[in-house]
């Protein structure tokens, strides 16, 4: 017998940064040289807006303040299209590389900038490279005091660049902390916990793996899936950075040409909304 139970809605998010902003490129591209590189965010984000509109999807856009300053009209257009504007910090500096005072100034500066451009409250934050972990949980207190309502900055997996394996896989609030943490999705098989919520893993593995992961999280765990990616991932024609180590080169460039087609399929197969809506009850 057919039912009219609606399909679950999952959380779609975009970390708005360009190819030269990524943490792995910091040894090769200094922040002082960023303005010398062609800014490709606008074309890529406008393509995403068309793709999302075509599929009826809305997302949370976690903006770098540096990029927002240079593309104010684009921030406004993203907001006008019904997407959530959130903060990715100003200059893509990992939290554990900042003092509390530096972090405080960064998150307040970026929030004020984005709110001025979007004309709406900015309540979400995602740290560069998911860099909140056991070393700097004080950052959650700073976020709450700065007016943020949620963070998506702790990755509950083991990774060579980030991760807090002791963290829960789904939305949680640490003892004594005022705001919830909403992790990007992972799947668990016994003692194995595997990342599956986007980025390089989405490009590396076949599409069926992500489709399976979304379905497993929704049906077995009874939770919304949290997916993320970057605008540069739909841009296979981006300039190639020279001198990279083999690992960074592989991670950044693997399967860029296949990303857009897989993204379109993902948006077709599942329903997507901004994080502030999907997790409204927890926030």
Explain the overall architecture.
- This protein has 283 residues and is of the alpha/beta class.
- It has one domain: Alpha-Beta Barrel (TIM Barrel).
- It is built from 10 helices and 9 strands.
- It has helices at residues 41-55, 65-70, 72-80, 100-118, 138-145, 200-204, 207-219, 246-253, 256-269, 275-278, and strands at 9-16, 60-63, 84-87, 124-125, 150-151, 186-189, 192-195, 226-229, 271-273.
- The longest helix has 19 residues, at 100-118.
- The model has no long low-confidence stretch (mean pLDDT 93).
Give the SSE map:
Blueprint: E1 9-16, H1 41-55, E2 60-63, H2 65-70, H3 72-80, E3 84-87, H4 100-118, E4 124-125, H5 138-145, E5 150-151, E6 186-189, E7 192-195, H6 200-204, H7 207-219, E8 226-229, H8 246-253, H9 256-269, E9 271-273, H10 275-278
Parallel strand pairs: 1-2, 1-8, 1-9, 2-3, 4-5
Antiparallel strand pairs: 6-7
Question: What are the defining features of this structure?
Answer:
283 residues, two-stranded parallel sheet, 10 helices, globular
Level of helix content? 25-40%
Poorly predicted segments: none
- The CATH topology label is TIM Barrel
**N-end to C-end Cα span:** 36 Å
Percentage of residues in DSSP E strands: 5-15%
Question: What is the CA-based Rg, rounded?
Answer: 18 Å
Give a count of the beta strands, DSSP E runs of length 2 or more. Answer: 9
The run of helices and strands is EHEHHEHEHEEEHHEHHEH
Task: Count the domains.
Answer: 1
Number of helices: 10
Shape: globular
The mean pLDDT is 93
Q: What would you call the structural class? A: alpha/beta
Known CATH architecture: Alpha-Beta Barrel
CATH class: Alpha Beta
């Amino acid at each position: 017998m057919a039912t009219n139970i609606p399909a679950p809605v999952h959380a779609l998010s975009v970390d708005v940064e360009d190819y030269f902003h990524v943490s792995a490129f910091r040894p090769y591209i200094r922040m002082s040289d960023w303005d010398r590189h062609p800014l490709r965010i606008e074309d890529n984000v406008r393509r995403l807006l068309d793709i999302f509109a075509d599929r009826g999807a809305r997302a949370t856009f976690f903006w770098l303040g540096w990029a927002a300053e240079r593309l104010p009209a684009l921030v406004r257009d993203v907001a006008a299209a019904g997407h959530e504007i959130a903060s990715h910090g100003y200059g893509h500096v990992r939290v554990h590389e900042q003092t509390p005072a530096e972090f405080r100034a960064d998150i307040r500066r970026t929030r004020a900038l984005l709110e001025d451009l979007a004309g709406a409250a900015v309540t979400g934050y995602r740290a560069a490279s998911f860099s909140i972990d056991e070393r700097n949980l004080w950052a959650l207190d700073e976020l709450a005091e700065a007016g943020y309502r949620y963070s998506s900055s702790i990755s509950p997996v083991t990774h060579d660049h980030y991760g807090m394996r002791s963290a829960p896989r789904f939305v949680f609030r640490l003892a004594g902390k005022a705001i919830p943490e909403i992790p990007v999705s992972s799947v668990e098989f016994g003692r194995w916990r595997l990342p599956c919520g986007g980025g390089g893993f989405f490009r590396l593995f076949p599409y069926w793996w992500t489709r399976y992961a979304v379905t497993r999280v929704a049906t077995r765990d009874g939770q919304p899936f949290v997916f993320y990616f970057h605008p540069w991932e739909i841009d296979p024609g981006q300039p190639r950075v020279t001198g990279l180590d083999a690992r960074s080169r592989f991670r950044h460039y693997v399967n860029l040409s296949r990303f857009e087609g897989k993204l379109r399929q993902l948006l077709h197969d599942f329903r997507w909304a901004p994080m502030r809506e999907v997790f409204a009850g927890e926030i």
